[in-house]
Design goal:
about 70% helix, 6 helices
């Protein structure tokens, strides 16, 4: 195995490890406002991008509509998000972060900042900046490559299961 193969393997293993550590951590925490950690992304996206319809929100957080619908219901129930008539089409509604939701987002953002500062406390500011840029680049590149990866996996699965159309 060459150096590049080893690096790719290390990235894959560490991403899996990070996902598991984050899942364990998320299972152990809840904000005092009772916000499910899975709903954080929905709340933050609405705060960052502004009011939007549920379908657009699902696309923005790379999730399916039913999952986002459950998360939105959770946020509405806790009065962190409210539904309002869409100004461009009164028959539809958009989701809007409430003042209480903004306050909760700020507390979560502050706690996340403190936690990541704790994790990287022995790093130099230059190391943090380099990691931030490389991580952003990795996520952007992963997102761009995702459709091709999904297509290749589907093709591979079809070949393995014998469902490939040979016409």
């Amino acid at each position: 195995m060459d150096v590049d193969d080893e690096a790719i393997d290390t990235i894959a293993v560490q991403l899996t490890r990070l996902q598991r550590v984050r899942e364990r951590t998320a299972a152990q925490i809840r904000t005092k406002d009772g916000v499910d950690p899975a709903a954080f992304a929905v709340l933050f996206r609405l705060l960052q991008d502004g009011p939007m319809r549920s379908g657009a929100l699902a696309d923005a957080v790379y999730s399916d509509a039913s999952t986002v619908s459950r998360q939105v219901a959770h946020l509405v129930e806790r009065e962190l998000v409210r539904r309002m008539a869409d100004p461009t089409d009164g028959r539809a509604s958009v989701l809007v972060v409430t003042e209480h939701g903004r306050s909760v987002c700020e507390r979560i953002r502050r706690r996340r900042h403190e936690n990541l500062t704790r994790v990287t406390e022995s790093w130099t500011p230059a190391d943090r900046a380099t990691f931030a840029e490389l991580l952003r680049q990795f996520v952007d590149d992963f997102d761009r490559a995702r459709p091709g990866m999904v297509a290749a996996l589907r093709e591979s699965h079809a070949t393995i299961t014998g469902t490939e159309n040979s016409s």
